[in-house]
# Entry
Amino acid sequence: MTSLLPYPPELRAVGPVDAPFVPTIPVADLPAGAMRRVTFGDLDVLLAHTSLGIAAVDDRCPHMAAPLSIGELDGCVVACPLHRGTFDLETGEPATMPTTGGLWPDGTYEPVWCPPGQEPKVDPPGKKTDARRLTRIRRFRYYPLRIVDGVIEVAVPG
Ligand code: FES
# Structure
Protein backbone atom coordinates (compact mmCIF):
# COMPACT_ATOMS: atom_id res chain seq x y z
CA MET A 1 0.00 0.00 0.00
CA THR A 2 1.27 3.49 -0.87
CA SER A 3 1.90 5.67 2.16
CA LEU A 4 1.59 9.39 2.56
CA LEU A 5 4.47 11.42 3.92
CA PRO A 6 3.75 12.73 7.42
CA TYR A 7 4.73 16.38 7.76
CA PRO A 8 5.05 18.86 10.63
CA PRO A 9 1.52 20.20 11.28
CA GLU A 10 2.77 23.78 11.52
CA LEU A 11 3.91 23.52 7.89
CA ARG A 12 0.44 22.92 6.47
CA ALA A 13 -0.21 25.14 3.44
CA VAL A 14 -2.19 28.28 4.12
CA GLY A 15 -5.87 27.84 3.31
CA PRO A 16 -9.15 26.82 4.89
CA VAL A 17 -8.95 23.66 7.02
CA ASP A 18 -12.03 22.35 5.20
CA ALA A 19 -10.59 22.93 1.71
CA PRO A 20 -12.09 20.36 -0.66
CA PHE A 21 -10.07 17.38 -1.88
CA VAL A 22 -9.62 17.40 -5.65
CA PRO A 23 -8.66 14.32 -7.71
CA THR A 24 -5.31 14.53 -9.50
CA ILE A 25 -3.59 11.49 -11.03
CA PRO A 26 -3.73 7.74 -10.44
CA VAL A 27 -1.27 6.70 -7.76
CA ALA A 28 0.05 4.15 -10.28
CA ASP A 29 1.29 7.10 -12.39
CA LEU A 30 3.57 8.27 -9.56
CA PRO A 31 5.96 5.39 -8.83
CA ALA A 32 8.54 5.61 -6.05
CA GLY A 33 11.11 8.30 -6.85
CA ALA A 34 8.86 10.14 -9.33
CA MET A 35 7.68 13.75 -9.27
CA ARG A 36 4.81 15.31 -11.17
CA ARG A 37 3.27 18.78 -11.46
CA VAL A 38 -0.51 19.08 -11.12
CA THR A 39 -2.23 22.42 -11.68
CA PHE A 40 -5.38 23.88 -10.17
CA GLY A 41 -6.18 27.23 -11.78
CA ASP A 42 -3.08 29.34 -11.09
CA LEU A 43 -1.74 26.98 -8.41
CA ASP A 44 0.99 24.51 -9.42
CA VAL A 45 1.48 21.65 -6.97
CA LEU A 46 4.35 19.19 -6.85
CA LEU A 47 3.49 15.56 -6.13
CA ALA A 48 6.63 13.74 -5.02
CA HIS A 49 6.82 10.04 -4.20
CA THR A 50 9.61 10.11 -1.63
CA SER A 51 11.17 7.19 0.21
CA LEU A 52 8.79 7.94 3.11
CA GLY A 53 5.62 8.39 1.06
CA ILE A 54 3.86 10.87 -1.18
CA ALA A 55 3.97 14.60 -0.45
CA ALA A 56 2.27 17.62 -2.04
CA VAL A 57 3.88 21.06 -1.87
CA ASP A 58 4.00 24.09 -4.13
CA ASP A 59 5.83 23.38 -7.38
CA ARG A 60 7.94 26.44 -6.71
CA CYS A 61 11.43 26.27 -5.29
CA PRO A 62 11.51 27.75 -1.77
CA HIS A 63 14.39 29.91 -3.01
CA MET A 64 13.40 31.69 -6.22
CA ALA A 65 10.33 29.73 -7.38
CA ALA A 66 11.80 27.49 -10.10
CA PRO A 67 9.69 24.37 -10.83
CA LEU A 68 10.95 21.56 -8.62
CA SER A 69 9.02 19.00 -10.69
CA ILE A 70 11.82 19.10 -13.28
CA GLY A 71 14.50 18.75 -10.61
CA GLU A 72 15.81 15.51 -9.08
CA LEU A 73 14.42 13.53 -6.17
CA ASP A 74 16.78 11.45 -4.01
CA GLY A 75 15.01 9.79 -1.10
CA CYS A 76 13.23 12.70 0.55
CA VAL A 77 15.51 15.42 -0.81
CA VAL A 78 14.61 17.33 -3.94
CA ALA A 79 17.26 19.22 -5.91
CA CYS A 80 16.22 22.37 -7.72
CA PRO A 81 17.18 22.74 -11.41
CA LEU A 82 18.52 26.25 -10.66
CA HIS A 83 21.26 27.35 -8.23
CA ARG A 84 21.88 23.81 -6.84
CA GLY A 85 19.70 24.27 -3.76
CA THR A 86 18.37 21.08 -2.15
CA PHE A 87 15.29 20.81 0.07
CA ASP A 88 14.16 18.08 2.46
CA LEU A 89 10.55 16.99 2.07
CA GLU A 90 10.69 15.03 5.34
CA THR A 91 11.33 18.10 7.49
CA GLY A 92 10.31 20.98 5.21
CA GLU A 93 13.76 22.53 5.65
CA PRO A 94 16.32 23.49 3.02
CA ALA A 95 19.27 21.08 3.02
CA THR A 96 21.82 22.88 0.82
CA MET A 97 22.03 26.63 0.36
CA PRO A 98 21.71 27.69 -3.30
CA THR A 99 24.94 28.87 -4.89
CA THR A 100 23.66 32.45 -4.82
CA GLY A 101 23.82 32.51 -1.01
CA GLY A 102 21.20 34.35 1.00
CA LEU A 103 19.21 33.78 4.17
CA TRP A 104 18.25 30.45 5.75
CA PRO A 105 14.67 30.30 7.08
CA ASP A 106 15.85 31.51 10.51
CA GLY A 107 17.49 34.58 8.94
CA THR A 108 21.10 33.36 9.18
CA TYR A 109 23.11 34.74 6.27
CA GLU A 110 25.24 32.53 4.04
CA PRO A 111 27.53 34.04 1.39
CA VAL A 112 27.66 33.19 -2.31
CA TRP A 113 29.12 29.72 -2.90
CA CYS A 114 32.71 29.52 -4.09
CA PRO A 115 34.92 26.54 -4.91
CA PRO A 116 36.98 25.22 -1.98
CA GLY A 117 40.32 27.00 -1.68
CA GLN A 118 39.28 30.00 -3.76
CA GLU A 119 38.64 33.52 -2.59
CA PRO A 120 34.91 34.33 -2.49
CA LYS A 121 33.75 36.41 -5.44
CA VAL A 122 33.06 40.00 -4.47
CA ASP A 123 29.79 41.18 -5.96
CA PRO A 124 29.58 44.80 -7.08
CA PRO A 125 27.33 46.74 -4.72
CA GLY A 126 23.83 47.27 -6.03
CA LYS A 127 20.29 46.03 -5.99
CA LYS A 128 21.06 42.64 -7.55
CA THR A 129 23.58 41.88 -4.84
CA ASP A 130 21.20 43.15 -2.17
CA ALA A 131 18.38 41.02 -3.60
CA ARG A 132 20.48 37.85 -3.44
CA ARG A 133 21.70 38.66 0.06
CA LEU A 134 18.18 39.34 1.34
CA THR A 135 16.42 36.42 -0.34
CA ARG A 136 15.22 34.16 2.45
CA ILE A 137 14.60 30.50 1.68
CA ARG A 138 11.24 29.28 2.88
CA ARG A 139 10.29 26.04 4.52
CA PHE A 140 7.98 23.86 2.47
CA ARG A 141 4.25 24.18 3.02
CA TYR A 142 2.28 20.96 2.56
CA TYR A 143 -1.13 20.34 1.06
CA PRO A 144 -3.19 17.57 2.70
CA LEU A 145 -3.46 14.42 0.62
CA ARG A 146 -5.43 11.24 0.47
CA ILE A 147 -5.78 8.31 -1.92
CA VAL A 148 -9.29 7.36 -2.94
CA ASP A 149 -9.96 4.45 -5.30
CA GLY A 150 -6.36 4.56 -6.50
CA VAL A 151 -6.40 8.31 -7.25
CA ILE A 152 -4.32 10.91 -5.41
CA GLU A 153 -6.51 13.71 -4.08
CA VAL A 154 -5.13 17.04 -2.85
CA ALA A 155 -6.90 19.56 -0.61
CA VAL A 156 -6.35 22.91 -2.26
CA PRO A 157 -7.65 26.32 -1.24
CA GLY A 158 -10.65 27.36 -3.35
S1 FES B 1 15.40 28.77 -7.58
FE1 FES B 1 15.81 26.85 -6.70
S2 FES B 1 17.79 26.97 -5.84
FE2 FES B 1 17.36 28.93 -6.67
